[in-house]
Amino acid sequence: MREFDLVVIGAGPGGYVAAIRAVQLGLKVACVEERATLGGTCLNVGCIPSKALLSSSEHLAELKHLAQHGISVGESSFDLGAMMARKDKVVGDLTKGIAHLFKKNGVEWLAGRGTIPAPGKVQVGDETVAAKNILIATGSDPAGLPGVTIDEEVILTSTGALALSRVPEHLVVIGAGVIGLELGQVWARLGAKVTVVEYLDRILPGADGEIARTAQRLLQRQGLAFQLGRKASVAREGAKATVTLERRDTGAVETLEADAVLVAIGRRPRTAGLGLEALGVALDPRGFIAVDGQFRTNVPGILAIGDAVPGPDARTQGRGGRHRRRRGAGRPCPSRARLRAGAGRRLHRAEVASLGATEEALKEAGTAHVVGKFQFIANGRARLMARDGRPRQGLGCAERGRILGAHVLGRNAGELIQELVLAMTRGATLAEVAATSTPIRAWARR
């Protein structure tokens, strides 16, 4: 039986970074992955392909706004096949890059589905290997809608929506979270009528309320229609689907006919079938693995990170993996609370970046705080680039001036917020941020 210091199950952003860093810290490491390519959901059917299509479709949408710069172009068109081919090439290049890094660093890829038959053992196909430590980084799957059968032809998950061979005349998106809104934007830009259905009375659950409301107005200008506060059910009828909507407040019912329906109501952890229940690994009611501040489960030698545990998603898995490997090699690592300071990027042209607490959460907790706001429209660079006036919002501790949260809506929001990520993780105050010459300082002075 082969023996390893660490066996990582899952080669997504958490798993592959964990495996590589562990080798660099002197451990003998294997990484288990059942896909034919490395990179997990993020690189194969998630963040990377969706952002590739967002980027391509944005170039098409930008043509409509060139006239205000005094630029005229002829009638625009696009080749969906070429667009998809570019997306696939981007994905392929990146997944091959991870395979190269595995080979370069000496991480052994165990191809197949991994299970844990006993503590310190991982089974992959017919082979069982021994592991001093096991790191679960299996990620997540799209959550299903009760009573709805996904066929990836008419009724889709995000995976199917990234591979459509034609632009649907009417796309109904069920779920107004990040995934549904991103893919809704892509197909709206390419000519589809897009209707977004959400059970709640708002889009982007968990985001700052003012930011979410403004983002909705921006998306409506881009052509997305919204049906909020509706419970949805779907039935396929031949090459189309009927979506039945029930208003939560009045119970009134209406129907929509769609060429395609994207079910994007969230994701669930991919923890079933690993053998965790038999081992006694604690799971919460939703299937997430319970871990402590150092990513340890209640079973010695078994740890978990990423979408398999409650908390930050794929955007912070890499950091979680790096810190976990540092601990495995006997080196200190930050707590999970520190890791949560990372910013989440959402959407694209109506980009939202969020950091820390929202204003609603601070009010609900009774936390004394100050709020600073600033509009893009008052910024000279934003005006000369013809960027719409959108808010930046900062939240700070009323007594000590520490940053409690920040939320940005607008182009390049993900880049703008990074200096606040650094400021927050290093404990900088609002006054210290305001004293810099950064683009974000305006709201810190308010």
Radius of gyration from the alpha-carbon trace, in angstroms: 23 Å
Percent of residues in helices comes to: 25-40%
**Overall morphology:** globular
**Category by helix and strand content:** alpha/beta
CATH topology of the largest domain: FAD/NAD(P)-binding domain
CATH-wise, what's the superfamily of the largest domain? Answer: FAD/NAD(P)-binding domain
Count of the domains: 3
Q: What do these coordinates show?
A:
With about 450 residues, the protein is α/β, with parallel strands linked by helices. The protein folds into 3 domains: about 210 residues, FAD/NAD(P)-binding domain, CATH 3.50.50; about 110 residues, 3-Layer(bba) Sandwich (FAD/NAD(P)-binding domain), CATH 3.50.50.60; about 90 residues, Enolase-like, domain 1 (2-Layer Sandwich), CATH 3.30.390.30. The strands form 5 sheets. Strands 1, 2, 3, 4, 5, 6 and 17 form a 7-stranded mixed beta sheet that branches. It has a 5-stranded parallel beta sheet with strand order 8-15-9-10-11. A 5-stranded antiparallel beta sheet has the order 18-19-22-21-20, sandwiched between helices. β12 and β13 form a beta hairpin.
What keywords describe this structure?
globular, Enolase-like, domain 1, 446 residues, FAD/NAD(P)-binding domain, single chain, 3 domains, alpha/beta, seven-stranded mixed sheet, five-stranded parallel sheet, 33% helix
SSE diagram, text form:
Elements: E1 3-9, H1 13-24, E2 29-33, H2 40-45, H3 47-62, H4 80-105, E3 108-111, E4 114-118, E5 121-124, E6 127-136, E7 140-142, E8 155-156, H5 158-161, E9 170-174, H6 178-189, E10 193-198, H7 209-221, E11 224-228, E12 230-237, E13 240-247, E14 253-258, E15 260-263, E16 267-269, H8 276-279, E17 302-304, H9 314-328, H10 336-339, E18 344-346, E19 352-356, H11 359-365, E20 369-375, H12 380-384, E21 391-397, E22 403-409, H13 413-416, H14 418-425, H15 430-434, H16 441-444
Parallel strand pairs: 1-2, 1-6, 2-3, 6-17, 8-15, 9-10, 9-15, 10-11
Antiparallel strand pairs: 4-5, 5-6, 7-16, 12-13, 13-14, 18-19, 19-22, 20-21, 21-22
